[in-house]
Design a protein that fits this description.
Layout (H helix, E strand, L loop, with lengths): L1 E4 L6 H10 L7 H20 L4 E8 L2 E8 L4 E6 L3 H10 L4 E11 L5 E9 L7 E5 L2 E2 L3 H10 L7 E10 H10 L5 E9 L1 E2 L5 E2 L5 H6 L7
Parallel strand pairs: 1-10, 4-5, 4-7, 7-9, 8-9, 9-10
Antiparallel strand pairs: 2-3, 5-6, 11-12
Helix pairs in contact: 1-2, 2-3
């Protein structure tokens, strides 16, 4: 697995990272969602550089221009619900993409321990396609692993890109150990060093789903 950390290079990308982290700015849900979309758009642009292109003749009012265009648009997959704004940003760029949706959540037991429960997957065939699986936070890494392996039941993709905005070091270690494939690239915005006993990233940004869509009923 290859790993690219976009935040290691100074760009406007880090401005958007700072705003989704800021406890004052993130009180505006619309701006939080829009910033996740912006980050998704930048991820999409960077990923597009790795894809295959062909020369296309485009007729203009004054002649014919030769332009390099995508051979194939990707399949965009995300983990509900927090992943929706990030996926929308990817979709803003890859606007002809097919889409896949995965339902996975933390299920807690009486002792307060949790495991990731997988419920639902809607996906087109992935055979010989490029797949982009996105989720804003890579905390323990379990959701991404479950999402990835569930998608692999829908075909054998040519290339897989995993996109996360903020990852923990533990999550990175987990994913690289449990997703071992030469055709997988992990794209990360920033890496944080700590994780709480409840598997929340520190400093992180809080609960991305709640910040984007409102607080949910406690699932403990």
């Amino acid at each position: 697995m290859r790993i690219n950390i976009l935040g290691d290079t100074n760009s406007i990308f880090n401005q958007f990272i700072s705003e989704i982290r800021c406890e004052t700015i993130q009180k505006d849900p619309m701006r939080f969602r829009r910033n996740l979309q912006r980050l998704g758009e930048i991820f999409a642009y960077e990923i597009s550089k790795t894809m295959d292109y062909r020369t296309t003749d485009v007729k203009t009012p004054l002649g014919v221009a030769k332009v390099e265009t995508l051979v194939q648009h990707p399949v965009l997959a995300t983990i509900l619900r927090a992943g929706l704004p990030l996926q929308q940003g990817l979709l803003n760029v890859f606007d002809r993409a097919e889409n896949a949706f995965i339902s996975a959540y933390r299920k807690y037991d009486e002792a307060g321990e949790f495991h990731i429960e997988f419920e639902y997957l809607a996906s087109p065939s992935l055979n010989n396609k490029t797949v982009i699986l996105s989720d804003p936070m890579l905390a323990s890494g379990a959701s991404m692993e479950i999402g990835y392996h569930a998608l692999m039941e829908k075909g054998s993709p040519k290339q897989v890109h995993l996109v996360v905005v903020i990852a923990s070091t533990q999550g990175l270690d987990y994913v690289t150990k449990h997703i071992q494939a030469d055709n997988v690239t992990l794209w990360v915005g920033a890496v944080d060093p700590e994780m709480t006993p409840m598997s929340y990233i520190v400093p992180g940004l809080g609960d991305a789903g709640d910040l984007a869509f409102g607080a949910k009923i406690d699932s403990h």
